[in-house]
Write a structure and sequence with these properties.
This is LysR substrate-binding domain-containing protein. It comes from Peteryoungia algae. Keywords: DNA-binding, Plasmid, Transcription, Transcription regulation. It holds the Pfam family HTH_1. The protein is an alpha/beta fold and 299 residues long. The chain has 3 domains: 86 residues, Arc Repressor Mutant, subunit A; 105 residues, D-Maltodextrin-Binding Protein, domain 2, CATH 3.40.190; 100 residues, D-Maltodextrin-Binding Protein, domain 2 (3-Layer(aba) Sandwich). It has 11 helices and 12 strands. Strands 4-3-5 form a 3-stranded parallel β-sheet, with helices on one face. It has a 3-stranded antiparallel β-sheet with strand order 10-7-11. Strands 1-2 form a two-stranded antiparallel ribbon. Helix 2 crosses helix 5. The mean pLDDT is 88.
Length: 299
C-alpha cells in the first residue's frame, strides 16, 4: 500500500504546525487554511491514532500526553524531509555556515580552513565570530563551536579540545620590573581582565590566595585574541591559552614566564542540530576538524 494511503500526511503537517504554535487559528494562518479546516485535519489524525492529541478549552488548546510524545518526532521528521529536499536541489557549490567562539575562529580555524576547502571544493565556508550561544537549534548556523558544557536542546555536541591557561606578557613589560622570576612578580604589573575567574584559580595553584590584582581599567575583554593583542602592546598581563598563541610565543612577541597551566573547566565543542546530523557537509566538517585537531595535538 502506498505511504500516502497509509498515513494522513496533510493532517500530520497540520498537527505539527498547531502543536508548534499552540493555536488552531495561527496554524490556519500559517498554512492558508480556515480554523475549521485545521480542526477537521486534527480530528482525522486523532481518529487515525485512536487517542486525543490536544485538549481543548475556550480560546485555549494544549497537547495531551500522547500529543506531547508524538509532536517532537513529527517535527524532526519534517526537518529531515526538508533537509533531504534541500540536499536534492542544492547547487554544485553549497555553503557551510560556522558560528565559532572568537579566538578559536581567528587564531585556529581561520588558519586551517584552507585545507578543508581543498579537500571539499564543492563546499564554500562562511565563518562568523560569535560570543553568545543560546538556542543553537534555531540559529542559521550549520555548525556551532561554543566553549562550554551547554546544554543546547535539540543538538548533538562533540568535545573537540580542552585547553589550559597561563599568564603571558610582552618582554618589554617584564623588563620594566627587572623581569618576572616568580609568580608574585605578576602582582606588580597591570592585569588584563582582572575579573576573569582564571586569575584566582591560577594564583591559587601557585600558592597565592586572594591576590590583589592591579586593574588596567580600560582593558577587559571576552575574547582571548583581544587580550593577547593588548598584552603584546605592553598594556598588561593576560591569562590565555598557549594553544592559540604558538606563533606569538615562538616570535617572542609574548613570553610565558611559568610552565604551570591550569585546565579550563569545559571543552570547546562542535555542535549541530540533531535533525541535520546526516547532512554530508556537516559530516565532512566533523571528520576534518576532528582529524586536524588530533594531528596538531600529537607529539
Amino acid at each position: 500500500m502506498k505511504l500516502s494511503r497509509q498515513l494522513p500526511l496533510n493532517a500530520i503537517r497540520v498537527f505539527e504546525t498547531a502543536g508548534r504554535l499552540m493555536s488552531f487559528t495561527r496554524a490556519g494562518e500559517e498554512l492558508g487554511m480556515t480554523q475549521t479546516a485545521v480542526s477537521y485535519q486534527i480530528k482525522l489524525l486523532e481518529d487515525y491514532v485512536g487517542e486525543p492529541l490536544f485538549w481543548r478549552r475556550p480560546r485555549q488548546i494544549g497537547l495531551t500526553e500522547t500529543g506531547a510524545r508524538l509532536h517532537p518526532k513529527v517535527t524532526e521528521g519534517f526537518e529531515l524531509l526538508v533537509d533531504a529536499v534541500q540536499q536534492a536541489k542544492r547547487s554544485a557549490v553549497e555553503t557551510l555556515e560556522i558560528h565559532s567562539v572568537p579566538t578559536f575562529a581567528s587564531n585556529w580555524l581561520a588558519r586551517h580552513l584552507g585545507s578543508f576547502q581543498l579537500a571539499h571544493p564543492d563546499i564554500a565556508v562562511r565563518l562568523l565570530r560569535v560570543s553568545k550561544f543560546e538556542d543553537l537549534a534555531t540559529k542559521s548556523a550549520d555548525v556551532a563551536i561554543p566553549w562550554g558544557n551547554g546544554p543546547w536542546p535539540g543538538t548533538i555536541a562533540h568535545p573537540l579540545i580542552r585547553l589550559d591557561f597561563t599568564p603571558m606578557l610582552s618582554p618589554k613589560l617584564a623588563e620594566s620590573i627587572g623581569g618576572v622570576h616568580e609568580p608574585a612578580d605578576l602582582l606588580k604589573l597591570p592585569i588584563i581582565s582582572p575579573g576573569d575567574p582564571w586569575w584566582p584559580q591560577w594564583f591559587a595553584a601557585v600558592g597565592i590566595h586572594n591576590p590583589t590584582l592591579i586593574d588596567t581599567k580600560l582593558h577587559s575583554y571576552e575574547a582571548q585574541d583581544l587580550e593577547a593583542n593588548s598584552a603584546i602592546a605592553g598594556f598588561g598581563v593576560a591569562i590565555i591559552s598557549p594553544f592559540f598563541f604558538k606563533e606569538e610565543l615562538a616570535s617572542g612577541r609574548l613570553i610565558r614566564p611559568f610552565e604551570l597551566a591550569c585546565p579550563a573547566n569545559a571543552p570547546i565543542q562542535l555542535v549541530y542540530s540533531h535533525s541535520r546530523r546526516n547532512a554530508p557537509k556537516i559530516r565532512a566538517f566533523h571528520a576534518w576538524i576532528t582529524a586536524t585537531l588530533e594531528a596538531e595535538k600529537a607529539p
